[in-house]
Write a structure and sequence with these properties.
Blueprint: H1 2-24, E1 35-39, E2 45-48, E3 55-56, E4 64-66, E5 73-75, E6 82-85, E7 91-93
Antiparallel strand pairs: 1-2, 1-6, 3-4, 4-5, 6-7
């Protein structure tokens, strides 16, 4: 039994090394920029840097952003008053945003 466990441990170590190499060479990981929006009502820039990093402003529009670089979730009372910053550097109004 100990011999089988030793073989499994060696196999697991080898698999981890292989995965690290693939991650280093970007085979598995595609990095996105953090989620970022601008509230046009109050002028506050909101930046979510990690998963479940919910950020919001305190103006009546209550603009929010969430998700960091994992996913993009945003909203507010009036979507026409939210400017989304895209990963390519461009920006657009949230009401007209198409993925």
């Amino acid at each position: 039994m100990a011999k089988k466990q030793k073989i499994n441990l060696e196999k697991a170590k080898e698999m981890r090394k292989e995965l690290k190499l693939k991650v280093l060479h970007h085979d598995y990981v595609t990095k996105r920029k953090p989620s970022k929006v601008l509230c046009l009502s109050c002028g506050e820039v909101l930046l979510s840097t990690s998963v479940h990093d919910f950020q919001h402003c305190n103006c009546p529009n209550y603009t929010f952003v969430d998700g960091g670089s994992e996913y993009y979730r945003y909203g507010g009372m009036d979507m026409h008053k939210i400017l989304i910053f895209n990963p390519d550097g461009s920006s657009q109004i949230a009401a007209s945003y198409k993925m």
